[in-house]
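for the writeup, i need someone to sanity check this before i put it in the appendix. the sequnce is what the collaborator sent (i think, or maybe the updated version? ugh). structure was predicted straight from it, no edits. if anything looks off just tell me and ill rerun, i have time this weekend
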Amino acid sequence: MNILTVSNISKRYGRVQALDGVSFEVPRGSIFGILGPNGSGKTTLLGITTDCVNADSGTYRLFEDGATPVNLLRRRIGTLLETPCFYPYLPATDNLRIACLRKGVDPKHIGGVLEKVGLYRRRDSRFASYSLGMKQRLGIASALLGDPELLILDEPLNGLDPEGIAEIRALILELGASGHTVVMASRLLDEVEKVCTHVAILKSGRLLSVGKVDEITAEGDIVELAAADTQGLCALLKRENIGRKIAVDGGIVTVLFAGKADTAYLNELCHRNGIVLTRLLLRKQSMESIFLEVVAKQGRA
């Protein structure tokens, strides 16, 4: 079951094509990352799916019943589209009471959402006294008011220090585990890989790739090799047609495979040809390597 379906959405701002025929589906219960650099169209896409921006063409469908986010149906969606904006000299509880009035939600839920985001002990502290990570968590608490089925978060990790990133990462994972569907835009490749179950990769308004994170990163292994004779090692790998791409950096030979790599065979092959390996490391493709490779392919198209 899909909680959000985006169909051929396009949007232009003057000469800038912000989105160009973007289509994908967000499964219910997933943590879906929209990944791309600044200017890729992530925020515009989230604005369209929350009815804040009008698309030039294309459609989107929310929930299995085809609902759109208007009137009471807005309560089924929690959003954090920009940096959280609260009254700085009011405590968290009062800021959330104002949010409840705006959303038409019973204030009795305030304690529960503050507990969920780990701010209950600081509920009476002024917003101005919060760290950036705490401010982001309060923004997510506001989005959680009314227990929405879908959370839409725009760059929830933006501007945070490593501790703040870890806090929000853990919170998003907890929300996903508790049954919420989360759609989050991010330009942080490593965090998308750690947090998300699915990902759509955007660049300059175009959808480059979409799918499950574990399937995308499992498309090929990466093996790092090193030997005293780096040149001889590379020559051997090329002669034997090992891997689909070979790169050398600082004495480390990186081989990208189309599927799984047989490290035992690689070790035996090198030994048989008189090359003693000082490094043999198997790892999966990172989201960064996937992103760079997809972008490179599109650039050559």
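The chain has a mean pLDDT of 87. The longest helix spans residues 162-177.
thx in advance!!
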